[in-house]
Amino acid sequence: MNACLRAVVRAGIHSGLTVVGVYRGYTGLIAGETGELNLSSVSGIIHRGGTIIRTGRCPEFFHPEGRERAYRTLEAQGIEGLIVIGGNGSYQGAWLLHQEWGVPVIGVPGTIDNDIAGTDYTIGFDTAVETAVACIDKIRDTADSHERIFVVEVMGRHAGFIALETALAGGAEAVLVPEYPEFTGEDVCTRLEAGKRRGKRSFIVVVAEGAASGVEVARLIAERTGAETRATVLGHLQRGGSPTVDDRVLGSRCGAAAVEALRAGETAKMVCQRANEIVLADLEIAWQQKKPLDRALYELVNVLGS
Ligand code: F6P
Question: Is the pTM of this model over 0.90?
Fold first, then answer.
């Protein structure tokens, strides 16, 4: 997100605009916590995880009174357009602000979950997967040496994008994702037993948090197969750390494109990456459509992991 913020500030100033940062997301917008950002406000941040303007979940913004207060902040400070970096919830809030108060809004996809329809990737996803794969590489050392089965639970909320790419790149034997619930913990056991008969001594199973609990799946495998299992829940490790090159490039491109969109008079749009092009799409797509999980990639994990 810092790469994106840096791009918004610098591209905005380059175009002759004044750029104001809103601290702590919609909470700060309601409370009037803003401040002008200049070129040096965003120096030395492109390699840092998180966001220097901080963020927060803001239930108040889902009430009309909250949005009115947010609008009053914008009005009082002469802010003429809003760029929102976030996921579906943030987009819905922005859209309502646009509908109710006519505020020009542009969304930028920022979530590790990669679950926003309309864009191939979201800022943070690549870094989260890179971290998860690095963890699996380390876990595999113990799995191999001790001949154990490891179940690694990854984030993703209700979606399996992190789990799928992590499983493929981490060489996992199986993956459980919410999009394909027909493949269950029991099926994992069957596959693991078949592998064992062929002489396989260690296994990695990736579980999306939206599909099952990693601890429960590990318990089930131990019960069914008698194997020694361990569960690792990666949790918030996946949301921090220095961003990957892909995330820095995506963040920079999206930030600059969001400024361009506002300058061109666009509103209620989101900036998306499609086939490596940066394009605009209607903001509503984000919550009206469900982003499909690539079935071919899922099959590939199963073929390669069997
Ligand atoms: O949406 C991003 C995400 O990291 C999800 O993958 C995860 O389920 C959730 O946020 C965690 O939220 P919190 O930090 O509020 O516990």
Answer: yes
